[in-house]
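MODEL INPUT / OUTPUT PAIR
PAIR INDEX: 1
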Amino acid sequence: MSLPLYQKQHKHYDRGYRSTEVQSALSQYHLEEKSSTESHSKGSRAALYSDEVLVESSSKLSPRPKRPRPTYTALDHEIIGYVVPVFRGRREYVSGITDTEEERIKETAGYLARRNLFSSGEGVTAISRSTEDTVREEMFEKKSRKTAMRESAERINLNKKIHETVEFHRKQNEDSLLHAPEFVIKPRSHTVWEKQNVKLHCTVTGWPEPRVTWYKNNVPIDVHAYPGKYKIESKYSVHSLEINRCDFEDTAQYRASAMNIKGELSALSSVVVKRYKGEIDTSSFSTVSEPLSYGLSTSDYGTKFDIHIVEKFAVSFGREGETMSLGCTVIVYPNMKRIQPEIQWYRDGVLLQPSKWMQMHWSGERATLTLTHLNKEDEGLYTMRVVTKSGYETYSAYVFVRDAEAEVAGAPAAPLDVECLDANKDYVIVTWKQPAVNGGSPILGYFVDRCEVGTTHWSQCNDTPVKFARFPVTGLVEGRSYIFRVRAVNKNGISRPSRVSNPIAAMDPADKARMKGHPSAPWTGQIIVTEEEPAEGVVPGKPCQLAVTEATKSYVVLSWKPPGQRGHEGIMYYVEKCVAGTDSWQRVNTEIPVKSPRFALFDLAEGKSYCFRVRCCNSAGVGEPSEPTEATVVGDKLDIPKPPGHVLPTRNTDTCVVLTWAESKDAKDLVGYYIEATVVGSGVWEPCNNKPVKGTRFFCHGLSTGQTYVFRVSAVNAAGLSEFSQESEAIEVKAAIASPAPPYGISVLETVRNSMVLGWKQPKFIGGAEITGYFVDYREVIDGVVGKWHEAHIKPVSERAYRVNDLKENMTYQFQVRAANIAGVGIPSLPSTSFKCEEWTIAVPGPPYDLRCTEVRKDSLVLLWNPPVYSGRSEVNGFYLDIKEAEADESQWRSVNEKATQKKYMKIKHLKEGNTYVFRVRAQNKAGVGKPSDETEPVLAETRPGTKEVVVDVDDDGVISLIYECSEMTADSKFVWSKNYEEVSDSSRLAMETKGGRSRAVFKDPAIEDVGIYSCVVTETDGVSASYTLDEDELKRLLEMSHDHKFPTVPLKSDLAVELLEKGRVRFWLQAEKLSANAKSNFVFNDTDVIHGEKYKMSVDKNTGIIEMIMEKLEDEDEGTFTFQLKDGKAANQSSLVLIGDVFKKLQKESEFQRQEWFRKQGPHFVEYLGWEVTPKCDVLLKCKVANILKETTIIWYKDEREIMFDDKHDFKEGVCTLLISQISKKDAGIYEVILRDDRGKDKSLLKLVDQGFTDVMNGVFKVIAESATELKIQSTEEGIRLYSFVTYYNEELRVSWHHKESKISYTERVKCGVTGEQLWLQINEPTEKDKGKYAMEIFDGKGGLQKAVDVSGQAFEDAYAEFQRLKQAAIAERNRARVVGGLPDVVTIQEGKSLNLTCNVWGDPVPEVTWLKNEREMVGDDHCILKFASGKFASFTITSVSSVDSGKYSILVKNKYGTETGDFTVSVFTPDGEEEKAAPEAKKEARKK
């Protein structure tokens, strides 16, 4: 078939560059086609070319070369220049087998030559067939009769295909005659450097189209024997051979041989590979990776590896400084751990190596390339090549790198691709490429910086910016290595520095040339170095071959060769110049001679002509000058290129446009092109690439779908950027269209005697445009031999079912179907299986057809189908749906519906999210259930992101409509509305309105007949669809809503309400949900409009919808009904509030109170009125809280209208005033009053502590006392047992009662209660057994009784009773013991000569014994000291005529059986004055007597 006109004119088009889904679908179709084609032609190849099979079976040393795979599209991408091959039809399939037997025999001969060459290259000699090979030949020879007949039939079939091919090409080229091949353009010879790529091209014409084979030294080239080495392509009669990374072995004569049925013609070319002098290609010594055939065992040669690249990296965008990772998952089958594929990465066709800028990783399944620090040098087409011994697969995608943000606003972007050329001892030329972005103002020039390797110090090489993108750097130190960078400058500032160059060593190439070396051991890389012995003591000769290599207006570069006569040491040079036409030579480098045979001269006058010469010098002297150069005019010899020619944009994908342009005329040393794009109307130009592209074709990615762009191109060389080309035509970004892929799944729906009804499935790829129809072809099949194809009809059919008439009964037929759209007719489908044309007579119906899945969600979908064409012997009365998971076997089919449905659609629910399902449908009639339909394609149960549903809308006019929006529409997409899944054709009930990505289905007159399921499908999308069920209840709801919208009301958030504000003002208000700017309000009181004035203050806030009316106070005449009326457009509403009777009076009273309160609070006032509280100490605190207090404010307390006086002035601390009443009693009852007063006014507060008020206070006190009571405790006394509890404070009014065994105790002399201080006690005298039990004390706490209990029984009673007995005995002893009751003084002072008489009372039972002591010695009574004890109570002590001898300490000791006690006193005797002398002798006499 011929290609569509669009594809002929736009060679860039590539269906493979579409979406991942499209590529996947095409790949699946190609695999199906390949397997079908291979199985169909297997027998023919075996019959016609059995010799080739035998040759192949005779050796396993080399795999059989793969024949070109027949494909519908060319999915292989061209790497160099980023060229994607044009989409083309697969002519081989349409026309059958076009190769002649002679061509196949030649191919077999070529294969034998390659096999022998490969065997000899490996050191393997051909040997006789092994026993296994002999057996295999015998197996081929032993063919059954059936096999021979089949091969005979296939041979006949092959001849018919050849005949059809010839007829087909004759029809396609009616005006052309068959002619032999002819070379329009022959391949030319090339001389290249080692490790470079070379590509040989030729253009061949001829009919039939010649087949071109490439030979190297008359040996056919097999690309599979050397994976990655050779690449052969054929496009549009242009044939090419690409040799990657040439080495010495590629030096040979190459021949392109073109052959067709009219003859053969060859063209020769040579390739010479050169190596740099003195260098060794160490790469040839490196080991080869496992995936190549080198080093593999003989058994591995029979293994064929299938390579699949999945999870591919897409076109990527990054920014300078970022990190980017590219990766693909690689599947190699069979998976052999010891043989891993080799992963190679290329950028723009150049093999990449790991470095600090890029890292490569292969995990065994996934290959990744990480760009650690993006620069514009990293932009380009990246290709990943997976190499195995049986071939290789590649995948490519472009990486774009945007400029980093400028450090200075408006500064240009950084230059790129800094390289060092022509390095010498002290000199190097630095080159770079200009950036695409100049920052908005022209670039004034560039600064070159250098840095010695190993340091971090950068120094600027030029003082003034250079405009030329080349600059000679001088002043280098011999033997040291340097790196360089470049910065661009414009009027706004300096750019960021470029990426640094690779290190370059300052060395003289002449020194390197003098070194001779050759590898003595090639496989180890060992090199033997020798050095020539120079001559000695010779003045150097003249330099030779002096020339001007570069000349710009900024500098001139000279180069020369050293003289042959050089002396015994190194030489240096002096450079001289003179103005042309004069003989006045001037030495340029007067101070320091240069070491390099290169020199750059600066500061020359622009426009003048100069001549130059060079002298050599060494320690022996200065040599003769060289021959002067010709006159050289100082100025730029390289001009800025002219603008490129016509720019043509062409659509490619929905985010990509292919741009072509005419190259710049007469451009010298062109570096590449920069492309810019702008959205029409924006005026902002953005670069499409930041690295110059070579060629005149570029894919502009990253565009916005649906936007319209204009493009322009500029050329760039070392002199600068050209003017921009003329702007291209505007183009809208959207996917290009192509003819659709073939339909598939052809089946028979009905057969009668002379016709058959066919059904088929829509192509998986429709070409980007709606399918306009299908064409059906058929052919007869007689005994396995197929006939010619015949057209079943001329006009396309729109349905996916067609009845083919005029067939022969009982004849077998095959069918093929082609789809068509506005781009043309697609290629036909694979031939169907053979169907026999015989009338169906079965009773059950045939299979339904054209199953479609729509509205796919995570748990449901809708399945549609067409009823069977053949209904059987009765009408179809229902359908059954079957479902199973896609991976399940046939036994897993299960029915969806138990009862047959009469509809031609069904919503299938309860699917599991993430599972994939297939469906089929069976029809039934009265006779039974028929054959199931073909199953659907697998459907994944998922709700895709962004999925939207049909929504119902009722607008302000009450119009009911269904709305569906889609964000995935293409330019050719349409909304298709259906009712009950049949397209709506009756416009009397439903009107469609579509604008952009939004479609509305408007009901004109909603009624009961509009009930149903409404669905919408968006064409040219990936199944975007949704539905809405309109039942009777929903219709009723919508009609009510429509009525409300036709006669709308203003919705209210709250009805009219009233509230009191500060100062007792009254606020009437309501809130509407929404008010427009035109909303109006009206206020009515008792059917009378009121207006804004002194009494009424109205306001309307349309933002919040709040409407209010405020009155200062309510008068008696304001009793009645208040109404707010609203009108907003045609919507209206009102709300009323009735204020009459008690409701009005209560509101009026509250308003007046609030008004009075407001006035009260203008001066000092009470925030909290006077109240009381009981403190923990049972004091009563009267307190109030005041506010608005000044220093002048006074507070006065009153009780019963009598002022309470205080010593201190109240300080109003924290606004609280207090009065403390300690130990409150009845006398504290009364009326307490507090008055606040200052110049602003006064306020007062009363507290009545009388009657009930006082009782409440006392109850509060009682509560605190009761809560402070401690737990009851037991105490033994001499009288009995005492129970007691302590309280904080005791008040006489406190009521306390005691209980024993829950009965109130009646108090007696033996059992009594009392209070001692804060102790409450119960005394039980002389306790008995009856007194055991639980005792409780109940204290009145103001409300009830608070009890404290203790259990006096058991051990507690025993212990208390024992202690009581002990204390009782101790008390008896204490009462009856002997004691001195009184009567004795502590000291007695008596005059000498007087009588002393002392008497004291003594107690004791029994009567105690009395003993007197003096100075702790017992006394005996005599006449001088008389001792008496009378009545058992009175003891007397008498001393007659006291003398000084009687002074001392005296004691009385009383004693009985209960105890003893002593009473002491001191007697002091004194002598009066004058009698002391007389008394002294007498005293001495008395003493002697004693």
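PAIR INDEX: 2
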Amino acid sequence: MVFEMLFPSEEKVHPMDVSKIQLGNLIQTNVFLNIEKRCSLASWIKGNIKKKECCFYVEDAREGICKCGYPKIQHCDEAIKPEDYVGEQWDKHRHVREMPTDAFGDISFGGIGQKTGKYVRVSSDTSCESLYQLMTEQWNLRSPNLLISVTGGAKNFYIKNHLKDKFRRGLIKVAQTTGAWILTGGTHAGVMKHVGMAVRDYTLSSGSMEGQIVVIGVAPWGVIHNSHTLIHPEGCFPAYYSLDEQGQGRLSCLDINHTHFLLVDDGTHGHYGVEIELRARLERLISQQSLGNRESGVKIPVVCVVLDGGPGTLNTIYNSMLNNTPCVVLEGSGRLADVIAQVAALPVSKVTLVLIGQLLKRFFVQEYKNFTELQVIDWTKKIQDIIRMPHLLTVFRIDEDKNYDVDVAILQALLKASRSDEHAGRQSWERQLELAVAWNRVDIAESEIFTEESQWTSCDLHPAMFSALVGDKPEFVRLLLENGVCVRKFLEHEETLCKLYAHLPACFFRRKLAKRVQGDKTRRGQAPTSGSRRISLSHVSEEVRHLLGSFTQPLYVASRYKPTKDDVRLTVPSKGQVELTCLGEEPTADTVWDPGRDLFLWAVVQNNRELAEIGWEQCRDCIAAALAASKILRKLAQESGEDDSEEAKEMRELANHYEKQAIGVFSECHSWDTQRAQKLLIRISPSWGRSTCLWLALEADDKSFVAHSGVQALLTQIWCGELSVENPHWKILLCMIFFPLIYTGFLSFRRDEDIQRQAERTEQQKLAMDSVFAGISDAKIKRHFRGPSKSELKPLDCSSRLMSLLMSPQVKFYWNIASYFGFLWLFAVVLMIDFQPFPSWRELLLYVWLTSLVCEEVRQLYHDFDGSGFRRKAKMYIRDLWNILDVLSIMLFIAGLVCRLQASGTVFYVGKVLLCIDFIIFCLRLMAIFTISRNLGPKIIIVRRMMMDLFFFMFLLSIWVVAYGVAKQGILIQNEERLNWIIRGAVYEPYLIIFGNVPTNIDNTQFDISSCSVNGSDPLKPKCPLLNDDDMPVFPEWLTIIMLCIYLLFANILLLNLLIAIFNYTFQEVQDNTDTIWKFQRYELIKEYHSRPALPPPFILVSHLILFIKGVFLRYPPQRHKHFRQELEQTEEEELLSWEAYMKDNYLASTRQDESQSVEHRIQDTAEKVGAMSELLEREQEMVSATMAKRLAKLEEQVSESTKALRWIIDALKSQGCKSKMQPPLMTGKSSDRDDGDSSGQETDEESPPHTFARQLQYPGSTVKRFPVPEEKVSWEVNFTSYLPPIYNQHDSSNSDTSVLDKYRNPEGRTGIRGKGALERLGPNHILHPIFTRWRDAEHTVLEFLSVCEDAEKPGSLPGGPAKPDEPLPQTLERILGKKLHDKTRSQLEAGEKVYKGYVDDSRNTDNAWVETTIITLHCDKHSPLMADLNNIVESSPSSHQPLKWREVSCTACVSPYQREALRQVAQHHNTHF
């Protein structure tokens, strides 16, 4: 039924509506999924979330209204006539019950953008765990990295535009960058409205829902206007809520810009503040959750942001700071925020009742009249306690020099609170760093964490480095590297790299790696699981080798231990080389541990440009790394199967980027030292599978890199062999004909040039040394500093010169060209002149010649030039078009030869035809020889591209040819049965028409019956068209002529011009890249002739025979080509890599300089400067106006004071009898509100501050609250008429006689409570603490003390307890140490040194009972009997309820402040660090 209502069916469906039906099916599927999700949500909420409702109707003073605030009609019948509560008074706690909630779902506010949020009505007693589960699991919110609780004025208030913009911009920035939740009151008023407007501005500017800001409103259900629209027993999806500010009255509307609402219901209506307790509990629960679901111990930080506010806001701030929650107060937002901001920088002694009263009157204006004296005292005490915690209070001022937004102030407040933790030590800095990484705020880390006072080691930063890498935060990774992270130490253990690969983001490489892991398990006989898959470096190595190519060695090798069933474990040593001794293989030393490469490779495979750039900067072998990255990325893009996908495009772009990086570094190297740069190209790189830069570039198809002038110079040098590159071609050709010329110096050799350069360098060094040692006459000293002379190069001898000439690839190429022309000449002579039934000597020579060509092709197929294996060599051989032509020509020649040797004349002729066709293919193969030419090579590439265009053009042309030919043949000829004439008429003749051969058989005027056969009986003549009685064609002449005209129009004009345009486009497109492509393809020809035997065909058969004997019979190893692969010694390689790294730094520096000088960068800088200047001018204007207002207020106050002074002078003069002839002037002004005793109780800065812990408002271990005692009212000498403290006795509540209490008075002043409190007696309560110390080591560097600690991870306390004045040791110490050791200690403590004796600022102190302590220190020698007894007690104490432990004397060792001070004095006495 529901399905029919949602999708009404139709009886008939038009065929064109099939796609609409498919779309409808998709919509149905989505609808069903949404319905399923909503049903699941509704079921969960009904089972876990409750609401509250009144179950006892008692009419209030208003008619028809219950005591709960709801009208009578909104009560159920059971509540109106209850039988259980007859005769009772209405009680909120008894007569309100919980019921399943009936208001939840989606809430839509309509308007622009159709803003939709989620809401739920919850009981005020709801478990916070259930609420957190609702938000994270049912609403699918990600756990926050930060909770921002915004509090303040609940009514609309004015705020300056500049501050408002900074608040909105900063709040959104901190929420967006850190992934924070913003918690507010949720209504459309006051500070909540400002938060909502900030979210609205961000949503409109971003234009997308990605990165949505989470703003949760916790509002009281009973004050929500139009709440009835949200009620539905099954939930509303959505509920349409309208913002009605005009008709809301004393209620409030929900803010339309919040994303989630928790509507707290306590069963009453119209009461504000019912949500405060639940909100506080929820904030406390969230602050106890682990940050990012990690096990690091870091919890989600919470910060309170205050704007405006009243007395309720003060209570919120006070309670938050007592819970160690930092608060940020915005100065200039009004009322309470401005009061706190005014006194935040003052010492507590200056924050007096008078000052607070003046500030309250100044900022609260009309509200101040309703404040009572007791309220002002209470608020003064709370404000004093607030500013006594400066590490938790941050004031954001817009008139400071630092021009930053609120986001910086919020994050700085959190870090300041974390840094002030006295018991955290180094963990505090690490926690701050982890918070900064989670927030991704590099600016905060730079300014607050990585300061001069913080000393970081590489190991300290490793967790942050891992989080930054996994969280894709490249700026943080760069910052950590700049501040001491060593990549070598970070990736020292292979588990770290395995974890990085296990945390790869969703990418194509991760999917490939998962398949490989599953395949590995399947091969080992394990069932593949969908759960956790352990990734080892062997899987990564196999996959990377697949991407790089089989020519490389594995980057990571298996360990020498046998693989387990769960995984293949790898061992990467901390340094040096890796040995592979697994599964019976011989150990190798081909793979090295390279942490920079590992980090770069990890970033490249996930296609992360920023992290890959940082990793590339850490690579030593940077050119090879960039080329390998290009190869890997192109391979990944190719295998992704989606050429047009965004991921594939990004991979190709990144591959091109690293090709450019390789070109840039190599250009820098080539410009400095050509020989070193060329050595970089051919050196074997152990870090990248023993490949070379040149080979990686070729495999990656990096044409631009190969086309670089430096690479081409190397190829040219290899092409010339030992001959000089400067030799002209005619000299080489002349020496090929008459080789004795090489002994005359006619040809230049490279050895000669090297000898000349060496001589020049030696001469320069000699001159330099002579100038340095010009004044030294001792020859031995000169020889010593000059050092041993290097081995000098010797000139080539005669045989070496001849072999160098013959083995030069260039010379081989010239001989092979001559040989190939000779082969084609002989082939043509045989075909045209000497093709006899029995082969002649010329034909037999041709067969021998061809046999040498066949042998050479076989040698090329089996010759493993780079050690990549036969299979890969065969694939590369087949991919080459010229090799395909070679195979085709050889096969066709063999087929022609077989037919030619047959006795049958017909087959003999067929063989000759095949050989003639084969001659054409051999001639076409001649084009490959000229690819080496700089002029002809690029043209051949253009011809190849045009041939591809011609192929597709012929496909289009064939459509028109066949269409016109078949139609013409059908019209003219009736039932032609001869196949050859059908093809002539339908294909051949229309094709010739394109080239101007206009047909005559379509025009009756040119018809000749003698040129055709009437019945088609003559095989040499076409069949005549249908004839009439006059023997004239009857076909419609007008139609055939029109068809011909149309055919010529399209075929001759349109298609042929299209072909010309295609050729022109191809030429223009290829012409720019022809030179690059030619240079890239030139390598294959150079490589072929470099490995080719010196003798040309057919004499090459001798070389083939020698190679066969060496390889098959003598088992000689294959020849390695050092010109393409060169292994360097370790020292030389280190020098070369260091030089390459230096060149890379030069290249990066020049690149950054070019970017900074680019037009785009300058425009951006100019725009930023203009924006900063405009903001600075606006700020300056506001500062000037604010300063003027302050100056006018101060001037007005001074005038008022002057008026009072003048009035006092006049009164004094009158009292002395002085009279004036003139009347005194009328003086008016503001009277001061300052009391006469305003200075009473104020202390000078030099005096010690009064006790603070003894004046905490909440007495510990009870629900009793102290009377607020401000700082200046602590002393008993100060008059405090309003002082009415409660009396509290925890152990004896009957002892409340004030006369007895008055006998005992706290020596430090008032505490806000009378009686014994939690202490045992009135007056002083003595506590004795002995401090046993020892040295941990023999060097006396670490001092330790004996502490009592119930938790090993938390600070302990000093042993001891209450003691009577005449007792040397407390009884509690006897229970801890035992009677025997207690008695032994008693005698030794008498000789101990007293560290402190006197009053203790304890939270249990009252006006009549207080704590006094005596602290004695006793240092124990390492070998003393007392030391042995204490160690025995410590070893046996873990099983007791008060375990003992030796702890280091430090500021984090004890909880109590007075105990920390005692430890500080002990450390000072022993001259050790505290």
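PAIR 2 NOTE: The radius of gyration is 48 Å.
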